[in-house]
Amino acid sequence: MKLNKTLLSVATAASVLALVVPSVAEDVTIGFIGGFTGPIESLTPPIFAGAELAVKEVNEQGGILGGQLTLVSADGACDATTAAAAADKVINSDNATAIVGALCTGETIGAFNGSGLSGNVVFISPASSAPTLTTLDDNDLVYRTTPSDALQGVKMASLLLEKGIDDIAITYVNNDYGKGLADALSAAYTAGGGTVAASVAHEDGKADYRAELGNLTASQNLVILAYANSSGNTILRQAVESGNFTAYIGGDGMVGDDLLKGIDAASVEGMVATRAGAPEGTATDLYTKLATDAGNDPNSTYAPQAYDAAFLLALAIEKNGSGSRDGLSAALREVASAPGEKILPGEWSKAVELIKAGTDIDYEGAGGALDFDAAGDVDGIIVQLDVEGGKFVEKGPIN
Questions:
Q1: Helices 303-320 & 282-293, crossing angle to 10 degrees?
Q2: Residue 202 in contact with residue 225, Cβ under 8 Å?
Q3: How far is CA 214 from its chain centroid?
Q4: For 42-76, what is each residue's pLDDT tens digit?
Q5: Beta bridge partners of residue 173, listed in sequence order
Q6: Does the global pTM surpass 0.90?
Q7: How many of the other CB atoms lie within 10 Å of CB of 119?
Q8: Quick one: CA torsion of 33, 261, 202, 381, rounded to 10 degrees?
Q9: pLDDT tens digit string along 179-209?
Q10: Could you give the domains of the chain?
């Protein structure tokens, strides 16, 4: 009898300990793939810094799954083949649960098809904007926090027509991004009554685009859909030197300080560009403060969208309850969409408490609401930027 009581006491104590001992902490790794070299090399570091900021906040506010969140990076060079090798490293060697990236659309597709699909890895790109990503056969694994160029093309057309520009010449980098944006712009611009006097594809990375520019002189209003660190800079510089154009327009890939290197700032004063932006509101204000306090430029191209991508992945992993890739896509859709209590940038500890309590959450990001549609796309806003005094200045949303 005494022995039985002793055994009962031991069993009871063990049960109590089982209730109070927390589950084993789990460290988690996510990856970042982007063009640290190549045609967008000046745009990539601020985008990466946006993702780093989200990871830093997660760790400073208690970590993920009781452990630490680590961000590993690899250079995709804005190239499908290079990105496939980068994805192999991050996914198969670093064992990343999910990926922020890639940035260029072809880079994202190359990375995902290389190791993402076979590895059942969720990708969230903060910058891949080409419409081709919408129709990618991805098993519901590829998302983006920036709107498609189907929207950017429409907004750019609206802006140009509103400015009284009734004819344009377009040159675009010959890839998914350039062709997708050029097609969207051309369709919307002509539907609005504008004339596309010429549209010429160009290959990236050449030293001389004078032949292409010679085929674009039917209009003095030159639209360049390319990359700041590569063909965008070269074409803009040689167009200015030619004296054949009076107005210059660029897409989001052109919005970087390096675009104007070697170009007399006065000659491109008033140049217009478009890119994804953020609506006014508490979420944007919170991100702006967080980024500024961290020493980041809150207005860097696609940095807010990278912050959102990393923060969303962390929320989805916490919701999923482990660092496993299985079930992560479904968890991502749950934390990104209504119904649920709103979670804003920086509110990691609040989100964790709600998730542990079984309460639905709905993240509203630095770049706006992130209600993914069936293809993993989001709505958004497109903003206008003008070159003033040798740098791009954001002017506000395009109606």
A1: 100
A2: no
A3: 34
A4: 999 999 999 999 999 999 999 999 999 999 999 99
A5: 202
A6: yes
A7: 18
A8: 60
A9: 999 999 999 999 999 999 999 999 999 999 9
A10: 26-148+280-369 (3.40.50.2300), 149-278+381-397 (3.40.50.2300)
